[in-house]
Amino acid sequence: MTERVAIIDLGSNSARLIVMHIYHNGSYNLVYHQKEAIRLSEGMTGTNRLEQAAMNRAIATLRMFTHMCELFEVNKILAVTTAAVRTSENGTDFLRMVHRNTRIPLQVISGEEEARLGYIGVLNTLDVPDALIFDLGGGSTELTLVRNRKIEHSISMPFGAVTMTERFGTQNKVSEEELTDLYNFIMRQLEQVPWLDRLNIPLIGIGGTMRNVAKMDQRVRNYPFSKVHNYKVGPLSFSELWRMLVEKTADQRRKIPGLSSERADIIIAGSTIIKCLLNVTKGTQLIASGCGLREGLFFQYYRHLQHQEEIIPDILLHSARNMLMFYKGDINHAEHVTQLAVAMFEGWQQLHNLGEREKILLQVAALLHDIGITINYYDHARHSSYLVENARLFGLTHREQMLCAIIAGWHNGPSAKFTRNRLYTEFLDANDWDMARKLALILGLAECLDTTQMRLIPQVEAFAQNKRAHLRLITDEDASIERKAVEKHRKWFKKEFPFDLSIE
Question: Of which family is this protein a member (predicted)?
């Protein structure tokens, strides 16, 4: 039975709904996402009360979300709200309105819990051992210091993009005096947190401000890949973006490529918070995370359902296996091909001179090389490549994801069509293409060694000696079909390596 889980995040600036499906085999995927700008914290500065208009916008949005949950036949709703309701004097009244009008089980979470959920969402989707996670919302900013993938410190700061915009009036063109006042206020707040000083580690940003910073930087650089998650922005590049933003009016900012028009009036305050964080921590780079509180809520629920710890030990292997199960791939065949490919990679180390990271790319491509059969058996390697290229694979850089897509797509032989794809040509250099060809060859050989998908060859030994590459098939079965399939790749092998292939 498929479990349909809705997750609602009612923030100070926007409200989001995601619907996740969890299938009987344990795999899961996102099936729906909706975002609405509600500006719930608008007008709170000075009164500390939610305005009636803001509450009405939130209620209307939650009614819409309720309707979508009914359409998707959701059987579990996880709904939270954050700083605006948490800090307002009339938050309890608002919760009564929500219950009366929607029946959504909306829960107010503490700043500490908000930071923890963001940490779960980030750590299960980004492979970064040490970082400062900042969740920059409309009414607060949660900071979480992570060392060795564990929380060391966390704090909720009482400022966000909306509240700082209202307090310092930075909606339109800002004067140097207004900018200085905003900057100094945030710096004073951050300098009161001693563990933020000179961390010299990456800063991982959750929330719309960081996503928009990443998108703007991508447009400036003419970046060929639209994926924001795990996109990196250097401190110098960010400073140039920030300076460009503060010199423009709100109308001019709305025309900036990559910047959402809905965020044009609050981006000055939001980006200045990031600038202050970089200055206090001496952050080495900014990393955009497309996953945060909502994903944290999902992983907390899902991992408890599976009786597993909330933090996934190997996020790349987990997301690759989840993808394999979602597309109903032959898990035994995929794992056996992976095992054989790794054995050949390790045995022929002196031929390819590739390292541990390249071995990981081979493993991912091997696990997913046949998922394209879901679309069509014919040309399934090409279909697999497309699925890998566009998958929610976590723990890979954008370049590495492209390489995995090529390796999977070439497991029946190299194809020139990849070299005509702008994504690939702008990401990869000559060494990358050479590496992809070699790994695709190894994957192709491994696929041949399980042609019947009966695992007739449980093990292989691969080694190089006297200008000859040896591949010893260890089996007590009749593996004549597999042997014949491997023989067909001699020519391909000779093209990639200056050695003859001896199959024994």
Answer: Belongs to the heat shock protein 70 family.
Given this model, what pLDDT does residue 101 score?
94
Nearest-angstrom CA–CA distance, 322 and 337: 17
The strand order across the sheet containing 76-81 reads 28-37, 14-22, 3-10, 76-81, 106-108
Within this chain, do residues 165 and 77 fall inside the same structural domain, yes or no?
A: no
Domain identity same for 288 and 325: no
473 plus 344 within the same structural domain: yes
pTM greater than the 0.85 cutoff: yes
Residue-wise pLDDT tens digits, 260-278: 999 999 999 999 999 999 9
Computed from CA positions of residues 479, 480, 483, 484, in that sequence, does the dihedral angle turn out positive or negative?
negative
Q: Are residues 182 and 261 in the same domain?
A: yes
Among 53, 81, 108, the domain-final residue is 108
Residue 419 included in any domain: yes
**Coil/strand/helix, residue 474:** strand
- Dig out the tokens for 417 from the structure: 């069509």
If we measure between CA atoms, which residue out of 420, 426, 428 comes closest to residue 404?
Answer: 428
Query: Which among 85, 82, 137 has a CA at the least distance from the CA of 111?
Result: 82
**Least reliable range by pLDDT among 127-131, 277-281, 327-331:** 327-331
Q: How far is 112 from 297, CA to CA, in rounded Å?
A: 14
Nearest-angstrom CA–CA distance, 97 and 82: 16
DSSP string, 339-352: HHHHHHHHHTHHHH
What CA–CA distance (Å, rounded) separates 348 from 371?
27
Q: Is residue 274 part of a domain?
A: yes
Inter-CA distances, 416 with 329, 419, 420, 448, Å: 27, 5, 7, 22
Q: How far is CA 100 from CA 8, 63, 96, 104, 358, in A?
A: 17, 11, 6, 9, 56
Tens-place pLDDT, residues 196-226:
999 999 999 999 999 999 999 999 999 998 8
Read off the tokens for 19: 């619907």
Which domain does 226 fall in, by range? 112-292
Q: For residue range 49-82, what is the model confidence (pLDDT) as tens digits?
A: 999 999 999 999 999 999 999 999 999 999 999 9
By C-alpha distance, which of 169, 288, 302 is closest to 234?
A: 288
- Condensed to tens digits (0 to 9), the pLDDT of residues 359-376 reads 999 999 999 999 999 999
| 222 Rama class: left (phi>0) / alpha (psi -120 to 50) / beta | left
The Cα-based distances of 172 to 162, 246, 248, 289, 391 in angstroms read 13, 9, 8, 28, 39
**CATH number of the CATH domain containing 83:** 3.30.420.40
* CATH at residue 209: 3.30.420.150
Residues 6+ apart with CB under 8 A from 450: 333, 336, 337, 340, 456, 457, 482
Q: What rounded mean pLDDT belongs to the chain?
A: 96
CA distance 95 to 92: 5
**Is the model's pLDDT at 256 over the cut of 90?**
yes
